[in-house]
Amino acid sequence: MKSADRPLSPHLQVYRWQLTSVLSILHRATGVVLSAGTILLVWWLVAAASGPDAYDGVQDFLGSWIGLLLLFGWTVSLFYHLCNGIRHLVWDTGHALDLRSTYTGGWIVVGATAVLTLVAWIVGISRWVS
Amino acid sequence: MRSPLGRAVGLGSAKEGVEHWWAQRLTAIALVPLSLWFVSAIIGIAGADLETMQNWIGLPLPAILLVLLLIATFYHLSLGLQVVIEDYVHTDLAKLGLIIIVRLLSFGFAVAGVFAVVSIALGPTS
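Structure tokens for the assembled complex are given below, as produced in the milestone run.
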């Protein structure tokens, strides 16, 4: 049998979208996004250590619309990865692995991510404005 | 055929056991309180001027927690990115090269971040 004729694992596109698989790939995607986002954190810290000129540069960037967009993406990713990470840690103990629990936990993660992101930005903006 | 002892000691072609898995979980557990603290603290001082920010970073508790956050974050992300690379990159040379780049950059950024926090906490501000 030629190698090309070997049975392959099923292609992703034959599957219907499901909450469980979407959340699974989102965990990985947000992890990659957060990895890139740490560069922003280190840049900010190094600028704060360097002096006023460097610090003003970072603050201007973070306050611009693209900076705020990146910060928003970073907070959504962080809260999602955090909540779903806790879901993973529960699974690691051998609990909540049945189909019903994976869906219940998944929706809890989606809800918690939305609530935490909204609270963080509402408090952040109200502090910023006042 | 290999003896059960030989299998356990030799660890097969992976050459390692549960260290990666365990370190990923340990850093994940550490990052739950650390990242929640970081986000709430940053919201509290968002938009502050440099002097306020330096004074805050230089306080013992924020300085210690920031260093812990940086170490746990970069350890955790280098382990995570390694798994992503191992899953999607199938040529040995590219896989090895990318893992080396991720490891070196993670270490470099972690050192840069820790140095920045320590220099603000200990040094005179410029």
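Chain A touches chain B through 33 residues (CB under 8 Å). Residues 5 and 73 of chain A are 43 Å apart (CA to CA). Further analysis is deferred to the final report.
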